[in-house]
Amino acid sequence: MSTWFNLVIVVQVLSALAIIGLVLLQHGKGADMGAAFGSGASGSLFGATGSSNFMSKSTGIAAAIFFIATLALSYLSTQHNTGVSGGVMDKVSAPVPATGAGAIPTSATPAAAPAAAPAAAPAAAAPTASGAAASIPK
C-alpha cells in the first residue's frame, strides 16, 4: 500500500511540474509586438498553429494526469484503515506505584533530619518611600 501511495505522489508532483512548465512556455495571443505584424509564427518551433495545439493538448493531458493522481491519493488514503485513536497518549501505560525506600512516606514519623543548615542571614530592611512616592497606591 505504501509503495502505491509513494508512486502516485511522484506521478502527481511530476504532472504538476509539467503543467507549470507548459503553461509558462505557452505564448498568449498578442504576447509581443511581433505577433501584431504577423511575425509571431517565425520563432515558433511547431509552426503557426501547431505550437498552440501541441502545447494546449500537452497541458490538458498533464492536467488530466494530475486530476487522476489526486483522486487516486484520495482513494488510497481512505482505504488505509487505522481505527479510531486518541493519539499518542493511548499507548502510555499507567505508572506502577513505587514501593520500598523510593516510596513516598505515609506514616507520621518524620524522615531523618538533614545536616545542620547554616543560619539564615538577617533580612535587609526594605527601603521606605517618603514624600510624594509614599502616596502612590500600589
Structure description:
- By secondary structure, the chain is mainly alpha-helical.
- The protein has a domain at 2-29 and 45-81.
- The protein has 3 helices and no strands.
- The chain has helices at residues 2-25, 33-36, 50-79.
- Helix 1 (2-25) runs antiparallel to helix 3 (50-79).
- The longest helix is centred in the middle third of the chain and has 30 residues, at 50-79.
- The mean pLDDT is 74.
- Keywords: Cell membrane, Membrane, Protein transport, Translocation, Transmembrane, Transmembrane helix, Transport.
- It is found in: Cell membrane.
- It is a multi-pass membrane protein.
Summed over residues and divided by their number, the pLDDT gives a mean of: 74
What share of residues are in beta strands?
under 5%
The level of helicity is 40-55%
End-to-end separation in angstroms reads 67 Å
Provide a count of the helices: 3
Q: Compute the gyration radius: what is it?
A: 39 Å
Low-confidence stretches at least 5 residues in length (pLDDT < 50)? none
Order of helices and strands: HHH
- Biggest β-sheet: count, sense, barrel? none
Category from helices, strands and their pairing: mainly alpha
Strand elements, count: 0
Query: Which shape, going by the Cα principal axes?
Result: elongated
Keywords: Cell membrane, Membrane, Protein transport, Translocation, Transmembrane, Transmembrane helix, Transport
InterPro entries: SecG
Subcellular location: Cell membrane
GO molecular function: protein-transporting ATPase activity
